[in-house]
Automatic annotation (TrEMBL), chain A:
The keyword Transport is annotated on this UniProt entry: no
Family according to the record: Belongs to the ParA family. MinD subfamily.
Lineage: Bacteria, Pseudomonadati, Pseudomonadota, Alphaproteobacteria, Rhodobacterales
Regions crossing the membrane: none
Secretion signal span: none
GO MF annotations in UniProt: ATP binding; ATP hydrolysis activity
One Pfam family, short name: AAA_31
Task performed by this protein: ATPase required for the correct placement of the division site. Cell division inhibitors MinC and MinD act in concert to form an inhibitor capable of blocking formation of the polar Z ring septums. Rapidly oscillates between the poles of the cell to destabilize FtsZ filaments that have formed before they mature into polar Z rings.
Protein name listed in UniProt: Septum site-determining protein MinD
TrEMBL record, chain B:
Protein encoded by which gene: minC
UniProt source species: Tranquillimonas rosea
Residues of the Septum formation inhibitor MinC C-terminal domain: 127-226
Purpose: Cell division inhibitor that blocks the formation of polar Z ring septums. Rapidly oscillates between the poles of the cell to destabilize FtsZ filaments that have formed before they mature into polar Z rings. Prevents FtsZ polymerization.
Annotated keywords: Cell cycle, Cell division, Septation
Protein name: Probable septum site-determining protein MinC
GO BP: cell morphogenesis; division septum assembly; regulation of cell division; regulation of cell septum assembly
Chain ranges of the Septum formation inhibitor MinC N-terminal domain: 4-60
Residue ranges of the region described as Disordered: 86-129
Length: 272, 238
C-alpha cells in the first residue's frame, strides 16, 4: 500500500525542500521505492537540491497537461536506484495545477511507488492546498520560533479540514508529524528561540525528529546532495532517524541540548 | 430605539452613520420606539414623520413603549401599537455602545435594537480536537465546549457560553446575539481577546497575574470581569 506524504509548513525558508529531499532519499536508502514531487510551480528548487537540474526535460505540469508521459518526466536518481524525482516547471505558475491532474498523476505513481513525497510550496494558497489534498500523512516542518509555529498551526488546521481525508466521511484523518528544523541548542539555551516542549505544547502532534542547525545542510544543497546521504553530518544523522520513525521504527529521540538532563526522557515519553 | 427628545436632522444623520456601519443588521428588524425620554413628542404629525423616515431606512417600526397617554393616542393614530414597560438590557446595551465607540458628535439618541426575542431552541456544540490558528468554531444557537487547546489566531464564537478545557490562546466571543448573561470559562487563560455581548478585553489589559489561570469571564454591568475560578467559587459559597 503506497503512501502519499506531504512536506509542508506554511512559512517559507524553514527547510521544506531540504527536508523533502532528505526524507525521500532516506526512504529510498531503506529500500523503499520512492518518488519526490516538486509542487512549487514556478520556483523550481527540488531538482537543484537533488542535483538533477541538468537532466530535467519534461516536468510535472507537462504531465498534468498531457504533453508528456509520466515515465518521460520522472528522473531516476543516480545515487539511489529506488529514488525518482518529478520536477516542476520553472516557467509556469501554480494555476497550471489542476485538482484532477494532480489526482491522476498521484494515482499513476501509487501503482509503482511505495512512498510519494510531495514537496509543498510555502503559503496556504492553491499550490500548497493541492500538495496536501491527497496526502495520507503530513510532515510539518517548523523552526523553533513563534511565527513559524503559528503558521504550522494554521497548516495543521487546513490538513484537518481542506484535504480529501478530511472531506470524505469515514476516512482516517491525515497523520501529521512535526519535524523541527534549524534547531540551535545554543540560541534556545539563551532563550532566543523556543524549546521543543513549547513547540509541542502548541502544535500537539507527535514529534518526528529534531534537525540541528548545521552548515552541512547548506553545503549539501549547494552540491545537490540530499543531506541524509552525507554520513558525517549530525543533520544527516537526524534526518535518517526521522525517516526511520516515519516508517514506524521506534527510535529514542536524541536532542542535543544545553538544558538539564531528563528532558530526553520526558520528550520520549510524550511522543511514544 | 430610544429617543431623547423630538428627532432633528442631526438624529437622522447619526442614525444613517450607524446604519451604514451595520447595513444588514437592522434591515427589516422589528423596531419599537421608546418615548420614555421624549415626552415632548406628542403631535401625531411629528410621529408620523418619524415613522415615515425610519421606514424609508428599511426599519420596520411597529410600536412605541413608555408612552404617555397623549403619546399612546398619537401612536394609535399613526397605526403603531403602544406597549407598556421596557427591558433593561437594551438600555445597558445602548450606553455601552456609546462608551465603546464615542461618537464624534455625541448623540443621546443611540439606537439599540429592540428586536423581538427569537424562538429559543438551543443546540450546544462540542469540539474535542485542537482548534488551530485560522479556524473559526461557531455555536450559533447555544453553548460551545472545546476540549483541547485553542491556538492563537483561532476564533470561538457562541450565542451562549463558551467553555475551554485546554490551553486558550485564541479569541473567544460569547453571547454574540447580545446575551449579557453569557460567560466564558477557561481552564488555562492566555487569550488574545475575550468578549461577551460585544464588550471585549484584549490580552494587553487582561493582567499578567491571570495568565495560565483557570478563570471565568462575565459581565457585571458595564464591566467585563475576569475572575480566577477558585476565588469566585469561595465567594459564591458564602
Amino acid at each position: 500500500m503506497s503512501k502519499v506524504i506531504v512536506v509542508t509548513s506554511g512559512k517559507g525558508g524553514v527547510g521544506k525542500t531540504t527536508s523533502a529531499a532528505a526524507i525521500s532519499a532516506g526512504l529510498a536508502q531503506q529500500g523503499h521505492k520512492t518518488v519526490v514531487i516538486d509542487f512549487d510551480v514556478g520556483l523550481r528548487n527540488l531538482d537543484m537540491i537533488m542535483g538533477c537540474e541538468r537532466r530535467v526535460v519534461f516536468d510535472f505540469i507537462n504531465v498534468i497537461q498531457g504533453d508528456a508521459k509520466l515515465k518521460q518526466a520522472l528522473i531516476k536518481d543516480r545515487r539511489l536506484d529506488t529514488l525518482s524525482i518529478l520536477p516542476t516547471s520553472q516557467t509556469r505558475d501554480k494555476d497550471a495545477l489542476t485538482s484532477e491532474g494532480v489526482e491522476k498523476v498521484l494515482e499513476e505513481l501509487r501503482e509503482e511507488f511505495d512512498y510519494i513525497v510531495c514537496d509543498s510550496p510555502a503559503g496556504i494558497e492553491r499550490g500548497a492546498q493541492l500538495a496536501m489534498y491527497y496526502a495520507d500523512e503530513a510532515v510539518v516542518v517548523t523552526n523553533p520560533e513563534v511565527s513559524s509555529v503559528r503558521d504550522s498551526d494554521r497548516v495543521l488546521g487546513l490538513l484537518n479540514s481542506k484535504t480529501k481525508r478530511a472531506e470524505e466521511s469515514g476516512a482516517d484523518p491525515i497523520k501529521s508529524h512535526l519535524l523541527l528544523t534549524r534547531y540551535d541548542a545554543k540560541r534556545i539555551g539563551e532563550g532566543e528561540m523556543m524549546n521543543v516542549e513549547d513547540v509541542l505544547e502548541i502544535l500537539a502532534i507527535p514529534l518526528l525528529g529534531v534537525i540541528p542547525e548545521s552548515t552541512a545542510v547548506l553545503r549539501a544543497s549547494n552540491v545537490g546532495l540530499p543531506v541524509v546521504l552525507d554520513d558525517k553530518s549530525r543533520a544527516g544523522k537526524a534526518y535518517e532517524e526521522a525517516v526511520a520513525r516515519l516508517t514506524g521504527e521506534q527510535i529514542e529521540m536524541r536532542i542535543e541540548s544545553e538544558e538539564r538532563p531528563g528532558l530526553f526522557q520526558r520528550l520520549f515519553g510524550r511522543t511514544a | 430605539m430610544r429617543l431623547a427628545g423630538a428627532p432633528d436632522d442631526q438624529f437622522y444623520e447619526s442614525l444613517d452613520v450607524r446604519l451604514q456601519q451595520t447595513p444588514h443588521f437592522f434591515s427589516d428588524a422589528p423596531l419599537i420606539i421608546d418615548l420614555d425620554q421624549a415626552a415632548d413628542l406628542v403631535d401625531p404629525a411629528d410621529l408620523q414623520w418619524l415613522v415615515d423616515n425610519l421606514r424609508q431606512r428599511d426599519l420596520s417600526v411597529f410600536g412605541v413603549q413608555n408612552a404617555t397617554a397623549d403619546q399612546a393616542e398619537a401612536a394609535r393614530a399613526v397605526g403603531l401599537i403602544s406597549l407598556s414597560g421596557g427591558r433593561d438590557a437594551p438600555l445597558r446595551g445602548s450606553r455601552r455602545e456609546e462608551e465603546r465607540k464615542p461618537d464624534p458628535a455625541p448623540e443621546p439618541e443611540a439606537a439599540a435594537p429592540q428586536a423581538a426575542p427569537p424562538p429559543r431552541t438551543t443546540t450546544n456544540k462540542l469540539v474535542s480536537t485542537p482548534v488551530r490558528s485560522g479556524q473559526t468554531v461557531i455555536a450559533d444557537r447555544g453553548d460551545l465546549v472545546i476540549v483541547g487547546p485553542v491556538s492563537s489566531g483561532a476564533e470561538l464564537i457562541a450565542t451562549g457560553n463558551i467553555h475551554i478545557y485546554g490551553h486558550m490562546r485564541g479569541r473567544a466571543m460569547a453571547g454574540i446575539n447580545g446575551d449579557e448573561t453569557a460567560r466564558i470559562f477557561c481552564q488555562s487563560l492566555d487569550a488574545e481577546l475575550l468578549a461577551i455581548a460585544g464588550l471585549y478585553r484584549t490580552s494587553e489589559n487582561l493582567g499578567a497575574e491571570l495568565r495560565r489561570k483557570s478563570v471565568q469571564v462575565y459581565l457585571e454591568g458595564e464591566r467585563l470581569r475576569v475572575d480566577p475560578l477558585d476565588r469566585t467559587q469561595n465567594r459564591s459559597g458564602q
